[in-house]
Amino acid sequence: MRPKPLIWRLLAACLSALFLVLLLIAMLTSHTVRDFHQAQMRLQLETWGNLFADQVRGSLSAGGIEAVQNALQRFHLEDGSQLMLMLPDGQVFTGAGIERERIENLASRAEVAEALKGHAHTELRSKPGAKSATLYAAVPIQGDGRILGVVCISTSMEPLEQMLWRINLRILFGGALAVLFTIAASLLLARRVNHALETIKQGAERFARGDFSNRLVIPDAMETATLAEAINEMAAQLHERIRNEVQQRCEQEAVLSSMVEGVLAVDTEQNVISLNKAAAQLFKIDSLGAAGRGLQEVVRNPALHRFVAEALSNAHPVESEIVLSDPAEQMLQAHGTVLRDAQGKDIGAVIVLNDVTRLRRLERIRRDFVANVSHELRTPITSIKGFVETLLDGALQDAGEAMHFLEIVGKQADRLNAIIEDLLTLSRVEQEAEKAEVVMRHGKIQAVLKAAIELCAPSAAAKEIAVEMQCPEELHAYISAPLLEQAVVNLLDNAIKYSEPKGIVEVSAQARGSDVAIEVRDHGCGIPPEHLPRLFERFYRVDKARSRQLGGTGLGLAIVKHIAQTHEGQVLVESKPGRGSLFTILLPSREGKEKAKPDGQEYS
């Protein structure tokens, strides 16, 4: 909440106190005046009742009702007051004449009931809808040892209420004058105090902005003078410290920001002291907002927390690898050592982080590739060696067996040659893509598909599989025709291998938005969904035994993936077990951005 000015606080306090005083005075005055006048009116009504009782007591004793009526007419009361006489039998008489009938049941009233017992009594009551209350008095008329009648007098309290209203108006008027005086005095006082404080505030704001050229002027008042002197002293010390801190910080930030490695410093409670830009990028956090916060709050990685705890508790440097998994997996080589101050006291730890994700990925790919190549090459080589040894051991003497073994050796040699050819093809595609040596030309997709279908025609005819093609003749794209043909051949070869005899393989191409989509669909055994994410990895097979039996090398789909990437596209797969598979090569449209040489010709 924004703080309020001092002037309004002083004014609010003074006005609040004044309002409470005026309210208390008004309440006490009204209460005192009302009680005093009510007591006077009660006494006056009882006095009138006793006077009238003395006048009519003899007439009532003698039964002179007419004399009573005359007395009622002659008895003078102030305006707004009424006089009635009630006999013990309930007859009521007023100044208007003798009323033999009961006007109302006066005996049920509290003051009349008390009067009938011989006691004068008054009651203050309000009638529904009346503007003011009415004071009722009942005085007994006693004679001959009995109650001869009751004098009932009533008068309105409206004059009293009007008088109280006039008194409250006078108090309100006096209060308004007091409020004006209070406001004027408060403003004058607050202005003098505020001027001194405003001068100190402006000087403090200058110091906060780093302007230490002018010191504060010392005011006359002792309290503000002491404050101004303290701020001047603080500004001098602060100026010196800031100058030293800025110089050191600039030197430190220049070193840390130029480092490729991430640097993280924490105190003994694992609160972040500082971290450089490289570390902030690694952890996807704000380097400025992280300072001063707990490491567990800033970076949610248990491995890093354990490593920092180990670095804090170990007097010697420690080293480990940390894995970050948000959003993608990253491998960090961490080096930690204790951080000490000028006196040699442990104040925390400093952690240096190197991103070795690419290095570890390349090492893993190399290991996997070597293992897969070794495994794939071992099988045909072992088979060739075994059968050659069998032939050398005497199987050559049996012509039938020798021919069978030689056929197997030939098949294994062909398989070995296919693996080597695919490896060379994959290596050539990667090297040409890296060196930007792939020649792209504006060519017809239909011609590429026809050439691929012709190459796969013998294998399709062997299984009596019909290959159907749908492709508009005018469909063009910027392509490397030999590479794209190789990719389609690999997809067609797989579709034919995994289709049932006398089946159908569909090859189609069409424009899909701004892209060109080449699809190869078969109706074979399909691929389980758990294998789809790894389908385009090198040497990955869904059914290893069947794949080797069909002559697959495990590199065909990897080659298709790299060819699609060379065209800045991608390859997708959709498959359901028992219902076949659909492979799609998406080639982006690049109208007007031909990457071919100036003399490039269309492929047709």
Description:
By secondary structure, the chain is of the alpha+beta class. It has helices at 6-62, 65-74, 110-116, 158-208, 222-257, 277-283, 287-290, 295-298, 302-313, 357-392, 399-434, 445-462, 481-497, 544-549, 556-566; strands at residues 81-86, 92-94, 97-99, 121-125, 134-143, 146-156, 262-267, 272-275, 318-324, 330-340, 346-355, 441-444, 466-470, 476-479, 504-512, 515-522, 570-576, 580-588. The strands form four sheets. The chain has a six-stranded antiparallel sheet. The longest helix has 57 residues, at 6-62. The chain is elongated, with a radius of gyration of 56 Å.
* Helix content class: 40-55%
Mean pLDDT across every amino acid position: 78
The proportion of residues in beta strands is 15-25%
Structural category:
alpha+beta
Q: Strands of the biggest beta sheet: in what spatial order? A: 3-2-1-6-5-4
Strand elements, count? 18
Oligomer: single chain
* Gap from first CA to last CA: 77 Å
Task: Pick out the low-confidence regions.
Answer: 97-102, 592-604
